[in-house]
Amino acid sequence: MTAIEAMGLRYRYPDGTLAVDGVDITVESGERLALLGPNGAGKSTLLQLLGGLVEPDDGTVRYFDETTDADSVRDRLSVLTQHPADYLFNPTVEEDLRYGPTQQDRPEQEVDRLVDRVADRLDLTALRSKPPFRLSGGQQRRAALASALTVEPDVLLLDEPVSNVDAANRAAILDLLADLSDRGVTLVTSTPDTELVPHVADRVVLFDADGTVADTGPTREILTDAGLLADCDLQPPQVVRLFDGRGEIPLTVEEAQRRLDTE
Ligand SMILES: Nc1ncnc2c1ncn2[C@@H]1O[C@H](COP(=O)(O)OP(=O)(O)OP(=O)(O)O)[C@@H](O)[C@H]1O
Ligand SMILES: [Mg+2]
Q1: What is the pLDDT of residues 187-209, one digit of tens each?
Q2: CATH 3.40.50.720 for the 2-88+153-262 domain, yes or no
Q3: What spacing in Å lies between the alpha carbon of 34 and ligand 2's midpoint?
Q4: Domain definitions of the chain by residue range
Q5: Looking at the whole model, is its pTM more than 0.85?
Q6: How high is the pLDDT of residue 77?
Q7: Residue 28 to residues 2, 62, 64, 205, Cα–Cα distance (Å)
Q8: Residue 236 zone, left/alpha/beta (φ > 0; ψ -120 to 50; rest)
Q9: To test ligand 1's pocket by mutation, which of 10, 15, 25, 45 has the most ligand atoms within 8 angstroms of CB?
Q10: Is 186 helix (H, G, I), strand (E, B) or coil?
């Protein structure tokens, strides 16, 4: 099944900036896809179009092979935009986390269970009674992600999910995303960071600075092509540059460690 099929998307901001110019994207159900490109390429705008938060000027977005009405699939699709404050509008973190599942008319005990589980995984337990605007930047991002997860979406659209997040929490988030993917959740992550991509995606849609799709392919193919990335003002991950020309190229430090251990 196709989770999202977008054809001919175009979007111009009121000030005249053409942010997305004729983009076609298909997201297969259950896949992990990265939207990779430099700053200003239009990734965040595109993610909002894919999530139905913004109407395109041209083009269509179709969900689950069945509808173009994003509102009718709100229960199955969570979008985390680049600004965590978009999701944190209740007096406390607790209420923000309960908001989505309560809107879905889930029984209170189930809401308790969902919120407890996500808060625990994202290290938010001690922050549940705090007003969201009193959280640090990284805490806000974790709280926003948590609020996107308590509705148990089938498709998760994430804009820079670990920016501002420390190493321990970054690992916790990546671990959680891996578990969700194992359970069949479709993940689309937008980022300018080639280091993040191998942790969140098996396939990449690469954008150049103009916001045109430069290439689409398996993560390994895209991240080991230094020339292609340079054309998009990006670089391969550090470990790829280190091992370039020295046999099988690892994409992450963990893969490099495994390779060195067997040598
Ligand atoms: N509200 C807005 N009004 C006018 N122009 C905007 C607005 N938001 C974004 N843009 C412009 O649209 C283009 C695409 O922006 P967008 O935020 O989608 O890029 P991005 O690929 O997500 O970049 P980054 O990696 O920095 O997050 C940029 O040129 C940006 O200046
Ligand atoms: Mg962005």
Answers
A1: 999 999 999 999 999 999 999 99
A2: no
A3: 13
A4: 2-88+153-262
A5: yes
A6: 94
A7: 4, 12, 9, 13
A8: beta
A9: 45
A10: strand
